[in-house]
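Got a spare moment? Tell me how you read both lines of this record:
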Amino acid sequence: MLAEIAAFALVMGSSSLFDFKAPALYSPRERAVSNWRLESARNLGATFGTLARALTRDSAKLPRCVRLNNYWCVKSARWNGEIATDNDGHVAFASAREGALVAAQLLRRYYVDLGRTSARAIVTRWAPAECEALAAVRQRLVRASAGATKLDAHAKRGLSNTLRARWLAAKGKGGKQVALSRAFAPRIQLMRAPSIAPGLGESAKPLPAMSVSPLVRLASVDVSDKLPATQSRMQSCTGENVRIRNYAAKVAEGVADGPDADLKLFDAAGLPTQALPRVMANMAAVEIGPLKPDFALIIKVVEEQTAAWREKIER
């Protein structure tokens, strides 16, 4: 513990180091912005011991958004201060201030422009359930498989064995005779590949049960022994729905009666109310845990952004 406090004092104790300005660079290998420790020392409101341990421990164990100066885990959209993104699209900001400004701007867009006034409505867009995207992909694969089956019904031997296909193979495109070496090249017996769309290539043949791996069954869109799409989707989204419900409840804490009540973040003119800083603090507490941003940072950012919004409204 003494070593941790000594290391923390090196960051906090020297005013020249604390005020040092250097270009913020993103390191893909470390998945962090070069100045994240300095920004954390300036802007995180955790207790001394918690912050000291956080800044001196292995950074890989910290919430990744702390290392990105992005305490609200905002996704990329070419924001001001955005210098890079991680593999999941989270923004690496040059400073924590810029990350907080973008979070305030995004909340206003959700509330004023998109009409998402409750905590649940905001969270389902801010941190959507991943299973929803997976279910959509699965539905597209099922539709593609159904379309291929319809084509196969018109070409019992496969599209490659229709009279037209054999004529094109012999004559070439435009009816020109092709070289014998190409038109009558001997067939080579290749290892059978999984049939993504039966009927579009070689004729579909039943494969031995032991040779079909789970991955091949997914690629071939074999959903005959699966649950119906709606039932499978409900089961796969159960955990995500619980996460969203808990997140929304935390966002509404101390602000609204529940996750579905109006948070009243902005007034009729589109200017923030006293609820906005509290909601921002609640959201950051979910995203980065006990390493919460200093409330003074949030207040300062909201005041700065309010002046900009008021000037835009009065024009």
